[in-house]
Design goal:
This protein has about 230 residues and is of the alpha/beta class. It contains nine helices and eight strands. Helices cover about 50% and strands about 15% of the residues.
């Protein structure tokens, strides 16, 4: 890939953004930027008390964080690090996700991460995955996608994922969390979750992962972006 490009892939929680963004990055041989992990990493390290910090204190604490993309020596893929430490499964719990979403309503947090994401985007061709990549962070992205699916389907996917990990969780509880997260993300005053005006919207409710990836690759080809 000779041209510096940025692809954005937005959508609600549990829609398969992470899987598709990783596959797109691998296909195009460019970096994958998990911006949700950036919010989660900050939430995990700050803890629930951060919700009550005044902006001045929160801003000071954010200055202690440094994100970067580095190539892993084992598989030669880019890995997101926070303060030189790789982010792991500890940030993937529902509780951390809800805290990250709540912190995302704070202007100082969003501004800090927007600047961090843009700085990374200046250095790498990448697929940026999150909730406002195409609407706020990378408005001039080469190509923008928005994946969606019904809350019920996203809850079923999350349940299946957890079961594969040996974690037993009630479907009703997961669905309630998905709906609550949607409400929180779509109605927040700052950068509410919505497709960019020039985004390609793909409803994945009745599509397999393979079908979604085929659709994404077709759009890439239509825009002259191929491996």
């Amino acid at each position: 890939m000779s041209k510096h490009i940025i692809l954005t892939l937005d959508g609600p929680a549990g829609v398969g953004k992470t899987t598709m963004a990783q596959k797109l990055a691998d296909y195009l041989k460019i970096a994958y930027l998990d911006t949700g992990a950036m919010f989660r990493g900050i939430a995990y390290l700050l803890g629930k008390e951060a919700l009550h910090y005044p902006d001045t204190i929160l801003q000071a604490k954010l200055l202690e964080f440094k994100f970067d993309l580095k190539k892993d020596s084992k598989d030669n893929k880019f890995v997101l690090s926070l303060n030189n430490r790789k982010l792991g499964p500890e940030i993937r719990t529902e509780e951390v996700g809800m805290l990250a979403s709540a912190l995302a309503t704070k202007g100082v947090v969003r501004e800090f991460l927007k600047q961090a994401q843009r700085e990374i985007g200046k250095r790498f061709s990448l697929v940026a995955e999150g909730r406002d990549m195409g609407t706020v962070v990378f408005k001039d992205a080469s190509l923008k996608f928005f994946l969606d699916a019904t809350p019920e389907e996203r809850a079923r996917r999350r349940l299946a994922q957890l079961k594969m990990q040996g974690i037993e969780v009630d479907y009703k509880k997961i669905l309630e969390q998905v709906i609550a997260r949607d409400r929180q993300d779509r109605t927040r005053k700052i950068a509410p979750l919505c497709p960019a005006q020039d985004a390609i919207i793909i409803d994945t409710t009745d599509l397999s992962l393979e079908d979604v990836f085929k659709a994404l690759k077709k759009y890439l080809s239509d825009f002259g972006l191929t491996a």
